[in-house]
Amino acid sequence: PRSTLSPSSATSDVYKRQNSRRAKMGYNYRDLGLTNTKEMFAKANKEGYAVPAFNFNNMEMAMAIVEACAEMGSPVILQCSKGALKYMGADVAPLLAKAAVDRARNMGSDIPVALHLDHGPDLETVKTCIEAGFSSVMIDGSHYDFAKNIQVSKEVVDYAHQFDVSVEAELGVLAGIEDDVKAESHTYTNPDEVEEFVTKTGVDSLAIAIGTSHGAHKFKPGEDPKLRLDILKEIERRIPGFPIVLHGSSAVPKQYTDMIKQYGGEVKDAIGIPDSELRKAASSAVAKINVDTDGRLAFTAAIRRVLGTSPKEFDPRKYLGAAKEEMKAYYKTKIVDVFGSEGAYKKGSL
């Protein structure tokens, strides 16, 4: 059998259905020490911070994320895109998430950890992730018309809620490119649609478009990116207390784009979303903020620095270890400056 872990709720009808398919499946997420996002978001909204949702692609990234959050006492959502799952394997990602939970506990921290599918394209991908041990999924139907988006999102909700897995959906379209998600133009979320969408789909959180953008090349230097906080305020009025999500929220830190260039890399000049704008959103209705590009830039910059200053180095532990530590240090600053989630749970230490 693929799982040797004990079930946390053997009497659950849901668990029995899962267990009967265990030969095909991976794990029940509770067996991995993971949580869904419902209680996380309720606490975040009540206390005025946002939960960090950081994407990872390998063991070093997962450890950087969880160590940063455990040391700061912040909850965390480990995210995988479909591209990341293709790279790691849907059977590997949940085990890396379990290792991350174990690391947090060994550090003396009680932070909750969720494993989330980012930009799930269809129900089949969602099923694969839930069966592997994911505790939260996103269905991205934002490229459909409103009615079709509702239909697709509700199908995912109906399936995922059988297993107590939380579901995120999206209204509005973010411009930019990140993995398989591409859009030429930006469409702000219409506040008139949110109440109907949330009611008819039954989703647990809603990603909205208020000025963020996917990828590293969000805005040109000299521009002054601003979030449409007026739209956020109106959405909050329409669905009070409902968890809101911001995608495409990386800052594209200049120190890392400069470092990449310094050590032989190529990256276009660009700026991201200012931390101050995101902090305003985090203290309002936004319960989850996604960051991916910033971590990639920090990770890559550190690798280039090591190889650029030590051209004879060929030990992966030396350059991947440096990348992990750089990513971790940067995310610790983001937890304070953007999310405001420091100290929400017990802090731990290595």
Key attributes of the depicted protein:
globular, eight-stranded parallel barrel, 350 residues, two-stranded antiparallel ribbon, 14% strand, disordered N terminus, alpha/beta, 10 strands
Report how far apart the termini are: 34 Å
- Biggest pleated sheet: 8 strands, parallel, barrel
- Say how many strands there are: 10
Proportion of helical residues: 40-55%
* Overall mean confidence score, pLDDT: 89
Overall form: globular
CA-based gyration radius: 19 Å
Order of helices and strands: HHEHEHHEHEHEEEHEHEHHEHH
Structural class: alpha/beta
Strand content: 5-15%
Low-confidence stretches: 1-12, 18-23
Per DSSP, the total helix count is 13
Largest sheet strand order: 1-2-3-4-5-8-9-10
Report on the structure:
The structure is a single chain. This protein is 45% helix and 14% strand. It has 13 helices and ten strands. Strands 1-2-3-4-5-8-9-10 form an eight-stranded parallel β-barrel, surrounded by nine helices. A hairpin with a 2-residue loop joins strand 6 and strand 7. Helix 3 (59-72) packs parallel to helix 5, helix 10 runs parallel beside helix 12 (293-309) and helix 12 packs antiparallel against helix 13. The chain starts with 12 loop residues before the first helix and ends in an 11-residue tail after the last helix. Mean pLDDT is 89; it is low at 1-12 and 18-23.
